[in-house]
Amino acid sequence: MIEKKKQKVLISGPIKSNFIADSIEKHSKKTNIGAHDIFLGQVRADVIENKIVQAIEYSAYEEMAEDTFYEIREAMFKKYDLICTHIYHSLGKVKVGEICLFVFVSAKHRKDAFDACSEIVEQIKINVPVFGKEVFEDESFVWKKNTI
Q: Is residue 3 situated within a structural domain?
C-alpha cells in the first residue's frame, strides 16, 4: 500500500456547503469509484440547564489532532478497500445549523465506504483531541461532552 499524502484537517470556522459540493464534483471524474459515503456533523440547538446552545467554539491540540486524524485515515486504508478519504473539522466558532465535521469516503463498493465512514466518525469522537465549548446566548458556556 502506498501511504497517502497528509492533508490538513483542521479548518477555521464552519464548513461551507459549496466546499462540500466542490469535493463531490471533483470525485465524479474518478471512474474507479463505485460508492461514496459522507458524514456531516452539524451544530444543534441543545437545551442545557434551560439555556439553548447558540454555537460551539472548537479548539484543539492542533499538531496532536492532525497526527491523530492522519493515523485514523491511514488505518482505514489498511482495513478497507478505499479509493480516497477526506476529513475536515472546524476550529473556532460554529453556529447552530452550520457544519463542523465533514467526512467523505470513496471506495469501489458501498460496504467499504459505509463501514469506513462510520468507523472514522467513531474514532474521531474517541481519540482526537478536539474540544468544544457549547456557547449560550448570554455568552456563558459549558464544555461539550462527546457521546457515542
A: no
